Design the sequence.
């Protein structure tokens, strides 16, 4: 039996964590070596934990909150980009974590690829085919950053699950 | 069964994705050199310049959407966004574009700088065989 208050608290914590990560990432200078437009995707770690351990509905709610935050702070374009990328990557990572035994690296990579695919699609709808030129570099960057976020997820998952168990008293 | 950090059988997927990206990259970079720079804002062409006619680099200010201003430098070699006051600077970091079909995109400002190649369609004044 789930503790409702604990679940609400955990959801709020995760939302705050995801927002903090994406803000932090926005404040970092562009990373050398990564192609223009690519990011580390640190908040994907939180989204993957939520999608894999707490269920897709919560993870989707987090993605919507993240998109809404981008909409309020950085405008319509950023909001649409965040929402499309976040939703697609969350669904993708959730499916891999719940339905398959895919490794952490592959989950991170597929999440990153889905994130970029969603954003590229949105950018395509907004700007036309010119944005597709960024595609190949983003795919290559996804392989790198996705493996990285997957590895961080593996390391941090036990801690996050312990915090989750403490708050919702399940498993 | 414990989920692992990495499975060897997944390497194939990763390599295939990397290979596809590299091939895609090579194809997109193998076009003819760009001869005309086109700047679009919200899908409308606001500037079009034959690069061959430029003896020295020309700098143009483009006012994009949401108050974003781009400084675009056009030269015989190609085009690049020299300065942009948007937060991410993706278009500036794209650097010099030289090939037909390449582009630098400013998403917040809704501006596309792209190069077109020599015309290959039949909108010519005259043709001989």
Sequence:
């Amino acid at each position: 039996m789930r503790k409702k208050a604990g679940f609400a608290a955990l959801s709020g914590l995760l939302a705050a964590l995801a927002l903090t990560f994406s803000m932090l990432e926005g404040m970092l200078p562009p990373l050398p070596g990564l192609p223009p437009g690519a990011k580390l995707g640190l908040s994907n770690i939180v989204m993957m934990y939520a999608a894999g351990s707490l269920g897709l509905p919560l993870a989707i709610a987090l993605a919507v909150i993240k998109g809404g935050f981008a909409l309020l702070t950085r405008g319509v374009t950023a909001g649409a980009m965040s929402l499309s990328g976040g939703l697609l990557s969350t669904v993708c990572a959730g499916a891999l974590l719940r339905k398959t035994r895919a490794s952490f690296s592959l989950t991170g990579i597929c999440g990153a690829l889905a994130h970029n695919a969603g954003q590229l699609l949105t950018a395509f709808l907004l700007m036309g085919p010119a944005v597709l030129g960024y595609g190949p570099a983003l795919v290559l960057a996804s392989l790198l950053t996705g493996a990285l976020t997957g590895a961080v997820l593996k390391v941090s998952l036990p801690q996050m699950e312990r915090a989750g168990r403490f708050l919702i008293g399940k498993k | 069964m414990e989920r692992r950090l990495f499975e060897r059988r997944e390497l194939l997927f990763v390599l295939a994705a990397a290979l596809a990206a590299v091939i895609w990259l090579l194809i997109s970079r193998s076009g003819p050199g760009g001869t005309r720079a086109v700047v679009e804002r919200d899908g409308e062409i606001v500037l079009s310049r034959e690069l061959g006619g430029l003896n020295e680099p020309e700098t143009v200010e483009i006012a994009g959407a949401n108050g974003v201003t781009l400084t675009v430098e056009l030269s015989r070699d190609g085009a690049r966004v020299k300065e942009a006051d948007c937060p991410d600077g993706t278009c500036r970091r794209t650097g010099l574009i030289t090939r037909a079909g390449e582009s630098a995109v400013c998403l917040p400002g809704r501006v596309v700088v792209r190069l077109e190649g020599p015309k290959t369609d039949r909108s010519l004044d005259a043709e001989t065989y």
Q: What stands out?
A: Residues 29 and 60 of chain A are 29 Å apart (CA to CA). The domain at 2-168 of chain A is CATH 1.10.1760.20 (Arp2/3 complex 21 kDa subunit ARPC3). The helical segments of chain A are 4-27, 43-54, 56-74, 76-99, 104-127, 135-168.
